[in-house]
């Protein structure tokens, strides 16, 4: 990378432009992944120093003890198996929530009845925490995956539907007229006009829905796992808490964070780069 020296308007335009290479420091600080990695290293260092100073492994284990517990659980196959169980249930619930939210948002954008229906349902159920429905879900569906799927759909449905509908309503009237003048039907109008124009809001809803679903799943597995003696990552945390294996508890919590970071960086960031940023809809 190089830096170009600015010249005033009064200077001769025929004079050569002085090009100076960027310093190593500026090149390094321009790499976002490196900057964020430095932040993570600093946080790990602070954690290690504070845990050593506190000297209470039962309350806060050191960073190195947590890494060792994470490694042992990963090598033994216990942690990967539980993560796989959690992700399988999560994808099922997330997919169902996205599908239902798409139908509701599409109906709300196409008809006045759909708009009233979505407004009423979101006003009723969006403030209700998903995990608060777990006891009733366990009564209705039993101690099994359907109960968790029910609360996951609730966690994903309302934020995604609200964001998608807000994005649809923000589409300019000019684009709507283009679609109508082209003679597009309802489905083609939504897919070809509304969805691309509202995609930044839809992507935000997908991110929020994912975050809600992920933390709801972990909380639900704490309850479901305790009841059925099985489960995913939430049960791993609960089981090690009962055994007073605090380092393993922190390893489970770190796994929750790592998976969240990976999904954000590898999935949502990739979608963002190849859609809204490529289209010039976001910086």
Protein architecture, described:
This protein has 283 residues and is mainly alpha-helical. It has two domains: 2-54, no CATH class; 63-274, MetI-like fold (Orthogonal Bundle), CATH 1.10.3720. Helix content is 75%, strand content 2%. The protein contains twelve helices and two strands; from the N terminus they run ββαααααααααααα. The chain has helices at residues 24-29, 32-54, 63-76, 78-110, 112-125, 134-141, 145-169, 173-181, 186-197, 199-228, 233-242, 246-274; strands at residues 2-4, 19-21. The protein has a two-stranded antiparallel sheet. α11 runs antiparallel to α12. The chain is flat and about 70 Å long. The two termini are 21 Å apart. 32% of the residues are buried. The model is unreliable at 1-6 (pLDDT under 50).
């Amino acid at each position: 990378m190089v830096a170009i020296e600015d010249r005033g308007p009064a200077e001769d335009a025929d004079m050569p432009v002085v090009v100076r290479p960027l310093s190593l420091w500026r090149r390094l600080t321009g790499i976002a992944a490196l900057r964020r990695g430095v932040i993570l290293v600093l946080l790990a260092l602070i954690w290690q120093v504070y845990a050593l100073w506190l000297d209470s492994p039962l309350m806060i284990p050191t960073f190195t003890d947590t890494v060792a517990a994470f490694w042992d659980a990963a090598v033994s196959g216990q942690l990967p198996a539980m993560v796989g169980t959690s992700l399988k249930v999560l994808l099922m619930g997330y997919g169902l929530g996205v599908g239902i939210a798409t139908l509701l948002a599409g109906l709300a954008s196409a008809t006045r009845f759909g708009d009233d229906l979505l407004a009423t349902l979101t006003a009723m159920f969006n403030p209700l925490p998903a995990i608060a429905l777990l006891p009733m879900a366990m009564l209705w569906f039993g101690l099994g995956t359907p109960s968790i799927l029910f609360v996951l759909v609730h966690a994903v449905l309302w934020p995604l539907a609200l964001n998608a509908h807000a994005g649809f309503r923000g589409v300019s009237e000019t684009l709507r007229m283009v679609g109508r003048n082209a003679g597009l039907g309802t489905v083609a109008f939504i897919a070809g006009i509304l969805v691309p124009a509202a995609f930044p809001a839809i992507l935000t809803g997908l991110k929020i829905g994912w975050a809600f679903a992920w933390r709801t799943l972990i909380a639900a597995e704490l309850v479901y796992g305790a009841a059925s003696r099985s489960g995913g990552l939430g049960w791993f945390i609960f089981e090690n808490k009962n055994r007073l294996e605090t380092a393993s508890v922190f390893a489970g919590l770190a796994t929750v964070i790592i998976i969240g970071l990976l999904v954000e960086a590898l999935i949502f960031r990739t979608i963002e780069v190849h859609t809204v940023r490529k289209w010039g809809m976001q910086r």
